[in-house]
Amino acid sequence: MAQTTETPPADTPDGRAPRTFRDPRTPRMHRAWFVAAVTFVTIIGAAAFASLPGLLIEPLHEEFDWSRGTIGFAVSVNLALYGLTAPFAAALMDRFGIRRIVAVALTVIALGSVLTVWMTAAWQLVLLWGVLVGLGSGSMALAFAATVTNRWFVARRGLVTGILTAAGASGQLVFLPLLSWLVEHHGWRPAAVTVALAALAVVPFVWLLLRDHPADVGLAPYGGEYAEKPAPVTGAARRAVTVLFKAARTGPFWLLAGTFAICGASTNGLVKTHFVPAAHDHGMPVTAAAGLLAVIGVFDVVGTIASGWFTDRFEARRLLAVYYALRGISLLFLPMLLAPSVHPPMLFFIVFYGLDWVATVPPTIALCREHYGEDSAIVFGWVLASHQVGAAAVAFAGGVARDVFGSYDLVWYASGALCAAAALMALVIRRPRTMTPSPAGA
Questions:
Q1: What dihedral do alpha carbons 346, 349, 351, 353 form, nearest 10°?
Q2: Are 202 and 194 in contact (CB under 8 A)?
Q3: Which of 99, 129, 207, 412 has the fewest CB atoms below 10 angstroms from its CB?
Q4: Sign of CA dihedral 26, 27, 32, 38
Q5: What band does 417 get if pLDDT is binned at 50, 70 and 90?
Q6: How far apart (Å, rounded) are the C-alpha atoms in residues 97 and 377?
């Protein structure tokens, strides 16, 4: 908040301290917080599509007689493209601006979702939900949140990262109960249309309220000094690949990518995709299982924001090790907790798992920032790609395991073991000696 000092008038008694007043031209709240709020709402609107895949497995299996492995393959394509698109989207935001890329991405999500209403073959599910929605959602990935945070904030970056990461969970909280009710009472098609409308509804907010850089409105980033807006960076694809090859020569990149691949495998790939059908296998109603996922979303908001606060105060790699170890332990107990009804031990698992769901994101982004400086958003995009490749592998493998063994138990145990490995990998990451930013056009 800018303040100015008023000189005491001549008749003011000597010794009176000069008073201060607010410059009327200075906003009460920094514009960065409004940009963060628009980003939060945008991610919530885009998160509707992430709530749907786990609800579609049983309806599509029953209507079209497609195997769970086939449906899981479409979900895995979606998840893989979600990750692989992210680094290129981050580079495209440097070239064309955040607003344009995000508005186009939301439109592509809406198109891919609404066209599934008329599909009749499995390849159409792969093309529409896998490819189109995957490409659109990849441009709305966490690299978007990282880009906004890096440009608009110097202070409170960990906290803002946690809040924006929690937006995905908030979207799940908002849409999952509604979508599960629609699927159970009206079929999966109205649910797909709802996802499309939610994505389109956010586009005006993005176009009218989001700004690409603090310099666009004559401000310094929150907690930082004013800097001119960089010139648009050409060769977005080349830059994304160049940054990848540069980062791939360093050990921390592979450790971060490995841990985040396991993070994706144990969250989006496993629980978000297969928890509802797994619970249904044990006699639990779909709406009840979807409600439990929504509760995960509630506590994910709390856990992720808290993780951002912790990341501003504690060593990020140690936080990661704790998060992965606790997640692995909880997954080992899950097969014993699945039952026809919701009971206290299952609720404890849901709360515990929700607090840990994407708490890994703030410390992972912080480590990318520490090691890779100005390239950190693109590096995190590639790390996120590994997250989604891990998610895609388990989304497909989980469906195949269910078809072959008639149960998801093996997948739960394997994911628990992988989380233990991720905890060890996080501890191996060394602190950087110096920051290594590269020129914007590198």
A1: -140
A2: no
A3: 207
A4: negative
A5: very high
A6: 14
List the domain boundaries for the chain.
30-212+236-428
Q: Domain 30-212+236-428, what fold?
A: Growth Hormone; Chain: A; (1.20.1250)
Alpha carbon dihedral 83, 85, 86, 91, in 10-degree steps, equals 160
Residue 172 pLDDT greater than 80, yes or no: no
Among candidates 68, 62, 275, 276, which has minimal Cα distance to 188? 62
Calculate the alpha carbon distances from 338 to 181, 289, 349 in Å. Answer: 21, 10, 10
CB 170 within 8 A of CB 44: yes
Instruction: Please give the residue that has the higher pLDDT: either 285 or 8.
Output: 285
Indicate whether 208 pLDDT > 80: yes
| Amino acid (one-letter) located at 295 | V
Q: Which two tokens stand for residue 234?
A: 């050409």
Closest to 361 (Cα-Cα) out of 336, 384, 379: 384
Torsion angles phi and psi, residue 4, rounded to 5: -135, 155
Mean pLDDT of 75-94: 78
Average pLDDT over residues 307-330: 90
Scored b (16 or more CB within 10 A) or e, 171-197 reads bbbbbbbbbbbbbbeeebbebbbbbbe
List pLDDT tens digits, range 86-143: 777 777 887 788 888 888 888 888 898 889 889 988 899 889 888 888 888 877 766 6
Nearest to 83 by CA among 403, 326, 433, 381: 381
